[in-house]
Amino acid sequence: MIFLIGIILLSIWTRSYIIGFLAAIINVFVFNYFFTEPRYTFEVYRFDYPITFIVSILTSILTSALLKQIKFQYSITKKQLYRTDLLFQFNDSIKQTYTVENLLINAGYQINQLLQQSITIYVINQSKVIKTIPLQNHIDNTTQQHEQALSWVIKNERQAGATTDTFPGINKWLIPIGTSPIKGILAIDNQSSQVINPYDASILESMLNELSLAVENVTLLKQTRESMLQAERQLTHSNFLRSISHDIRTPLTTIMGNLDILVSHSKDMSIIEKEQLLVHSFQESQYLYLLVTNILSLTKLQSSNVQIKLQPYLVSELVEEIDMILERRHLKKRITVSSSVDLQFIHIDSKLILQALFNLIENAVKHTSTDTKINLSIRYASDEQIEFAVIDEGPGISLEEQQKIFEPFYTGSNKYFKDNQKESMGLGLYLVQTILHKHQSNLQYKPNQPHGSIFYFNIDTDFNEGDI
After folding, report:
1. CA 268, CA 455: separation in Å to the nearest integer?
2. Which of 11, 112, 191, 343 is the most interior residue, by most CB within 10 Å?
3. pTM
4. 189 neighbors 138 (Cβ within 8 angstroms)
5. Are 417 and 360 in contact (CB under 8 A)?
6. What are the Histidine kinase domain coordinates in residue numbering (predicted)?
7. How crowded is residue 386: how many other Cβ atoms within 10 Å of its Cβ?
């Protein structure tokens, strides 16, 4: 039994079948030499000893062979588990990645763990290398032949370099990722020109297939998003042109018609009739001025390189300028300004904030009846914030409409929006929101009680001066 245990241990520790076979034979002869009569000789007196020895040899050989087979199966299973775990980690690392560059980097680290060789990533765009990313602090020493190999891989979308028949002299194995055109190249260092064993090669092939599929999916997703954004921009552009052409043409037609009447029939009209036509034309011109101003401001603010200059400005001076605008627009009778803030500086672009406030006032005037009172309230919301609020007692806005009122070109569908004499192109509130975002603020809405609307925003009193 002891010798049999020795055979088992020897079979576990060694790989060769021959060693187990020789150990089984040696085991029988040693047992015969030391433990059978006569001792210390290989002679055998009993008839059953040879049979015992033959059975022992066969048992030892069979045990050794079975253990070798079990050990081999264990090795295969262990490799399969390793392959499965490695591929699972690889898939997990790329499934939440949404850029080609990050996909290539994640794959490079996983392949580095598999092959224990340095990896260099080449990001390709429009058939050119736009970025080189060496992993594991590897210094990428490129040669002219290496550059030629890269160009060949980009053009032909096939592997090149070490282990291939194309540019075998360079010490890197260049593997293209993606198709028509390729999106990147994985360069695997192969300084000693060693051949990757078949098992690792099969894992690498699975990884590369998964990576190529993920890269194509990310590229397709990016193209789909760009197409959707392009379609949305075209729709927005079309809506903008349609709205602006209508909004400009209507008041211009009114002004031209009024002036034509004055020119053609001035002698037949009374002074009151002439004044009415002039007042109407003046109101239409004011609307045109506000519309063009809003469009120009919105275009300027949406420019990516625009900067606004925030300067200290007294709230009391802001109130005075608002009063002057209301006086000039003949709105003093309808609109009251109440301010509990006087000697307080706020950092703002005064022209833009005045435009935002007047847009809110104009919005309230447009969507309420002529006998509705409107109040501009300026007060401390806290020690560090001042609240500006335009309050009216009109019909208010439904809960459904409240979710959309700050969207561009939204003109609404309920009574609040449709009961005004002049339809809007839906830029006023959107422009106000854009201006306030430049001031690190936000336009908000809440219903007035018992009815009406309140549009309000807060400006910090301790806002840091500087460019935004």
Report:
1. 47
2. 11
3. 0.50
4. yes
5. no
6. 243-463
7. 21
Report the distance separating Cα 39 and Cα 390, nearest Å: 117
The mean predicted confidence, pLDDT, of the chain is: 80
Q: Which amino acid is at 337?
A: V
Select from 86, 65, 79 the least CA-distant residue to 17: 65
- Nearest Cα to Cα of residue 405 among 448, 445, 359, 447: 445
Provide the residue ranges of all domains of the chain, joining segments of one domain with +: 2-91, 103-196, 226-300, 307-460
pLDDT at 35 over 60: yes
pLDDT, residue 47, reads 61
Whether the pLDDT of residue 138 is over 90: the answer is no
Which residues, 6 or more positions from 348, have their beta carbon under 8 angstroms from its beta carbon? 310, 311, 313, 439, 459
467 pLDDT higher than 50: no
Q: Six-digit token pair at 257?
A: 């018609």
The candidate with the shortest Cα–Cα distance to 179, out of 144, 131, 207, 217, is 217
Q: Is 386 helix (H, G, I), strand (E, B) or coil?
A: strand
Assigned token pair, 102: 């990050």
Rounded-to-integer distance, Cα 32 and Cα 285, Å: 123
Domain 307-460 has CATH 3.30.565.10: yes
Residue 452 Cα to chain centre, angstroms: 40
The segment with the largest mean pLDDT, out of 192-201, 279-288, 329-338, 342-351, is 342-351
Residue carrying structure tokens 């806290």: 382
Q: Residue 460 pairs with which residues in a beta bridge?
A: 385
Q: Across the chain, which distance is largest between two alpha carbons, in Å? A: 156
CA atoms within 13 Å, Cβ hemisphere of 138: 22
Q: What span, in angstroms and rounded, lies between the C-alpha atoms of 160 and 163?
A: 8
The owner of tokens 């980690």 is 89
Q: Choose among 141, 131, 126, 133: nearest CA to 178.
A: 126
Sign of the torsion angle spanned by Cα atoms 233, 234, 237, 242 = negative
Looking at residue 231, its pLDDT comes to 84
Query: Which homologous superfamily is 103-196 in?
Result: GAF domain (3.30.450.40)
Condensed to tens digits (0 to 9), the pLDDT of residues 320-374 reads: 999 988 887 777 778 999 999 878 999 998 888 998 998 899 888 888 888 888 9
The CA angle 142-147-148, to the nearest 5 degrees, is 145
Report pLDDT digits (tens) over 167-188. Answer: 888 888 899 998 878 889 988 8
| Topology of the domain comprising 226-300 | Helix Hairpins (1.10.287)
Instruction: Determine the length of the chain.
Output: 468
Residue 18 has a pLDDT of 65
Dist. CA 443–CA 435, nearest whole Å: 9
The dihedrals phi and psi of 187, each to the nearest 5 degrees, come to -110, 115
